[in-house]
Design goal:
The complex is a heterodimer.
Chain A (H helix, E strand, L loop, with lengths): L1 E9 L2 E9 L4 E5 L6 H9 L5 E6 L2 E4 L12 E4 L11 H10 L8 H7 L15 H13 L5 E5 L7 H18 L2 E6 L2 H7 L2 E6 L2 E6 L1 H5 L2 H6 L6 E12 L4 E6 L2 E6 L9 E7 L3 E4 L10 E12 L5 E8 L2 E8 H7 L6 E6 L7 E2 L2
Parallel strand pairs in A: 3-8, 3-9, 6-7, 7-8
Antiparallel strand pairs in A: 1-2, 1-4, 4-5, 9-10, 11-12, 11-14, 12-13, 14-20, 15-19, 16-17, 16-19, 17-18
Helix pairs in contact in A: 2-4, 4-5
Chain B lengths: L1 H31 L5 H13 L2 H12 L4 H10 L7 H27 L2 H8 L4 H12 L1 H16 L3 H6 L10 H10 L3 H25 L9
Classes of the chains: A alpha+beta, B mainly alpha.
Chain lengths: 358, 221
């Protein structure tokens, strides 16, 4: 639905990106800093002058004959720094968008309710916290009535608690307001939590486009996230909720593991789990007397040495899904690990970011 | 005496309004353009700050006299000469006070920057809409500074007025000229009174400007 073939020359840097994106719900535009993600987003919005083609659905925004100015493009943009108008309070910022909205834009009270902004309406925008400002900026953009929303790193700079809070709001929006979003991020966690589709960018080019689960397994994609967060996405089914333990039991194939309580999930829901490679250890036999509760049986598929470090990334097949474990080269030698072996992946339950994707 | 004061304030008001209309687009262009002509235009705009008023007045006199293009057009349209008239004084004051309007506005517009404009565009505001709904409110202090300084500077002009306007009561005799005339005729008490009024006025105006902000000063003054 979003089609583009764009060329944008910046200071000492060229973005040349072409893709044909179906835009289901949320699409993540993923890549390291300086990959040109934000520049591509700005070009789509018309904030940077580029050459090439750009169309959304049936409407063409950029071609050799057409170049719609930013205010005429039916697209909403949420800036990384929120960019609320300081000469207006929160209500005034929302009213600014409402006055200029398209036909069929959502009503003010719906948007205010969806993002819990009612208590903020009278506030000076300069006194909002980072998370509050992002929510107001999201609300302001929703009010324009654009179907396609571009979000430039909507969670960067927020502390972990605020990040999860804003992420939960963003995850709800596509269904609630029938919008599609292209979200710039360099965080694997955000991709796992939000994205139904994923575009990977580096050095101003689009490297990959596809399903987040499939792309996140790739080492070359993993390397782009800076390593620390590198890991995989597992799909599981919520089986039991243990409210008094603040935990849930989920099923992966025929195996069960415990995860932190899934917020708002119901039994039978499909959950995505983000499992970081550094939080997974391998054992040759089931281990007893250990604080790590989750042990998944699987078959070792591959060992990828990480060049320039003492680590190896092991790819393990668990019930048809793939898990990554970052272990030391010494451990590989001690255990005499080899592809094809039966292994037990020890996963720290606390590292699982269980999220409802229903 | 009151005639001169009233005329002075009328001249300052008309000049400020005219410069607001002319100076705003010029300041906007200077704040945003990447044209190579910008330094030249900036220099021209700042010229009245450094030129002796007599030089400016001399050239204005040449342009506005009934034999010159501007002066003759004015004469044929209005039936009056542009020199030694109130209209001529307004034109001279607009030229003379130009930097006092343009420079604070240019600084204010530059301080607003690109970000709020992009935000406005993303909310479907056309460039003109964004200018009035975002740039003007965010530059409010710059506008206030520019208007107050322009007004005050016009009240304080002398040389240019003397060159193009002369000393016609009710038409071109502003306070500064009246003071000069009183002194020439040794009427010191009248000169004292008018001077004191101008001193008090100037102090109050500058006090207002400096109390409100220090952000958009005239740079070459």
């Amino acid at each position: 639905m979003l089609r583009f073939d764009l060329r944008l020359a910046l200071d000492g840097f060229t973005v040349e990106a072409a893709a044909d994106l179906p835009m289901p719900g949320i699409t993540a535009l993923f890549g390291p800093s300086g990959a040109g993600k934000s520049s591509l987003l700005r070009t789509i919005a018309g904030l940077e002058r580029a050459s090439g083609h750009l169309s959304y659905g049936d409407s063409c925004w950029l071609s050799p004959d057409i170049d719609l100015p930013p205010h005429a493009r039916p697209v909403g943009y949420v800036f990384q720094d929120a960019r609320l108008f300081t000469h207006r309070n929160v209500a005034g910022n929302l009213a600014y968008a409402e006055r200029r909205s398209r036909a069929g834009a959502p009503a003010m009270r719906e948007v205010v309710a969806a993002l819990d902004i009612a208590p903020l309406l009278k506030r000076d925008v300069r006194n909002l916290s980072g998370g509050e400002a992002r929510r107001v900026a999201l609300a302001r953009t929703l009010l324009t009535g654009a179907e396609l929303l571009l979000l430039d790193e909507p969670l960067t700079g927020l502390d972990a608690a605020r990040k999860h809070e804003v992420m939960n709001y963003i995850a709800e929006l596509p269904e609630r307001f029938s919008v599609r979003m292209l979200v710039v991020t360099h965080s694997v966690e955000e991709v796992v939590r939000l994205a139904a589709d994923m575009v990977v960018m580096e050095h101003g080019r689009i490297l990959h486009h596809g399903e987040p689960a499939a792309l996140l397994e790739r080492l070359d994609v993993q390397a782009l996230s800076g390593g620390f967060e590198a890991g995989v996405m597992l799909t599981s089914t919520l089986e039991t909720i243990l409210p008094e333990r603040f935990a849930s039991i989920v099923r992966i194939g025929e195996q069960r593991i415990t995860v932190p309580e899934a917020s708002g999930g119901a039994v039978g829901d499909v959950l995505r789990l983000h499992v970081r490679a550094r939080d997974v250890a391998l054992a040759l036999r089931p281990v007893e007397g250990l604080s790590i509760r989750n042990q998944l049986q699987g078959r070792l598929l591959r060992l990828d040495p990480m060049v320039g470090s003492g680590y190896v990334e092991a790819l393990v097949d668990v019930e048809g899904q793939h898990l990554r474990a970052r272990i030391t080269t010494l451990a590989v030698e001690d255990l005499a690990l080899e592809p094809g072996q039966l292994v037990y992946a020890l996963v720290k339950s606390a590292s699982l970011a269980a999220q409802d994707t229903a | 005496m009151w005639e001169a004061i009233a005329l002075t304030f009328e001249l300052a008001t008309v000049t400020t309004v005219s410069l607001l209309l002319l100076g705003t687009p010029l300041a906007w262009w200077l704040a945003r353009t990447s044209s190579r002509a910008r330094p030249a235009v900036e220099a021209l705009t700042a010229m009245p700050l450094v030129l002796p008023p007599t030089v400016l007045g001399f050239y204005l006199l040449l342009v506005m006299n009934p034999a010159a293009p501007l002066g003759s057009v004015w004469l044929s349209v209005t039936g009056e000469t542009l020199t030694f008239s109130f209209a001529g004084l307004v034109i001279a004051s607009v030229a003379y006070s130009l930097p006092f309007m343009v420079q604070p506005l240019q600084s204010a517009f530059q301080a607003v920057g690109q970000a709020p404009l992009e935000a406005a565009a993303s909310l479907r505001a056309s460039p003109l809409d964004a200018f009035f709904s975002v740039v003007v409110p965010l530059s409010a202090r710059g506008f206030l500074t520019a208007c107050v300084l322009t007004f005050a500077h016009t009240v304080g002009e002398f040389g240019v007025v003397l060159m193009v306007g002369g000393n016609i009561p009710g038409e071109t005799k502003v306070v500064s000229i009246a003071i000069y005339e009183h002194v020439e005729m040794l009427r010191y008490s009248e000169a004292h009174l008018l001077s004191a009024i101008l001193v008090a006025f100037s102090f109050v105006v500058l006090l207002v400007v400096y109390s409100l902000n220090r952000r958009f000063p005239v740079r070459v003054a």
